[in-house]
Amino acid sequence: MNQTKNEKGFNRLGWNESDVPLTTPVKADRGASKAEENKKGEVKAKKGVVPIFFATDNKYLPFLAITLESIWENSSHEYDYEMYVLNSGVDEDYKEKILRYNEKECFHIQFVDVTEKLKLIAAHLHIRDYYSQTTYFRVFIAEMFPQYDKAIYLDCDTVVLGDISELYNYDLGNNLIGGAPCEGVNSFNVYKRYVSEVDGLDADYFFNAGVILMNLKGFREEGFYEQFADLLKKYKFTVIQDEDYLNVLCQDRILRLPRAWNKTPVAPDRLPREDLRIVHYLMTWKPWNFSDIPYQEYFWEYAEKTEFYDLILGMRKSFNEQGVEAAKNCEASLKALAQSEIDRADGYFKVYGKRYGNVN
After folding, report:
1. What angle do CA 241, 261, 46 make, to 5 degrees?
2. What is the dihedral of CA 61, 66, 69, 72, to 10 degrees?
3. For the chain, what are the domain ranges?
4. Dihedral pair phi/psi, residue 213, rounded to 5°
5. CA-CA distance, 5 to 26, in Å (whole number)?
6. How far is CA 55 from the centre of its chain?
7. C-alpha 142: how far from its chain's center?
8. Which of 74, 103, 215, 344 is the most buried (most CB within 10 A)?
């Protein structure tokens, strides 16, 4: 995307850099590329359905189009992809643009309003400015969609460079979640301490919930939603929020995936395209704001193919010094909050200990 590559902008690198070396698995086994298969246009019998869930508001809906473009281009067309966009109200024009992806073979997209579900727990939420209520939508998936035993959840700030059906076909066994180690946590000492001392978990196994494979049948059989509601009343996780709840409740039942399935610009190690599966522009590492984000070329490659391209390019051009300072303050305040939670005498793990998973 030459326009963005060549114009000057604000740099993200140089502040809040990783201060911890990563040791968790990076690469995934290389599956057969589906790009050429997709271009052949051959009609084949479908292998089955891959359910994929997203949760968004108007702010992130344009980026969902980029995720969809990348899934279409890089994933096997031998599956049907049943996609659900969980929301609490979105712009009709944006919605219409997303629904046009239903014209593509294999894609079946629906918008699902979960406003009423969210009202049931809203009184117990303590949501920081960095987060939105949409991050909690994934908690409802197992209960609302009993027709599925397993499903993928994806954040909308992702680009899928591998075959998403390969992610779906991981065998979860008795695990509740398949997820990659969270690079946002594992790259900074304060967050590793937070996960260890507040959540009572091994940070190397703390997964990022922006890309997960969910055992929905297991969630239902074990009353996950009821456990979540009970824990929500007991303790307010304010740093990593719903990700804290998911990791605490699913501990010891997590299939750890290679980081290639949730590779972020945060970590200092870099992977070539052939080794990447999903790139996740998490936290303040946004290519629509900063000009030097690692892996931004993949974001703009697919953005240019969407109806939202001009809108997203406008975001990039209008980003200013106030935006840079806001991002810095966001990162600094989140670290400070993590430290304050570590220092609390009544932190979660200090009070409750290990109550979930293998408590023996």
Report:
1. 115
2. -80
3. 2-21+47-352
4. -105, 120
5. 27
6. 10
7. 17
8. 215
Residue 33: CB atoms within 10 Å: 13
Fold category of 2-21+47-352 in CATH: Spore Coat Polysaccharide Biosynthesis Protein SpsA; Chain A (3.90.550)
Residues with Cβ within 8 Å of residue 99, at least 6 apart in sequence:
109, 111
φ/ψ of residue 54, rounded to 5: -125, 155
Distance CA 107, CA 75 (A): 11
Candidates 242, 231, 198, 126; CA nearest to 346 is 198
Structure-token pair, residue 347:
């932190």
Alpha helices in the chain (DSSP H): 2-6, 35-40, 61-74, 92-99, 115-122, 141-144, 164-168, 183-186, 189-194, 216-221, 224-234, 242-250, 296-303, 309-318, 321-343, 348-352
Give me the amino acid identity at 236: K
Give the closest residue to 239 by CA, choosing from 337, 328, 329, 330. Answer: 337
> pLDDT truncated to tens, each residue of the chain (360 aa)?
444 444 678 999 999 899 988 888 887 765 443 434 444 445 556 789 999 999 998 999 999 999 999 999 999 999 999 999 999 889 999 999 999 999 998 999 999 988 876 666 555 544 444 344 555 788 889 989 999 999 999 999 999 999 999 999 999 999 999 999 999 999 999 999 999 999 999 999 999 999 999 999 999 999 998 899 899 889 999 898 889 999 999 999 999 999 999 999 999 889 999 999 999 999 999 999 999 999 999 999 999 999 999 999 999 999 999 999 999 999 999 999 999 999 999 999 999 999 998 876
Look up residue 192 and give its amino acid: K
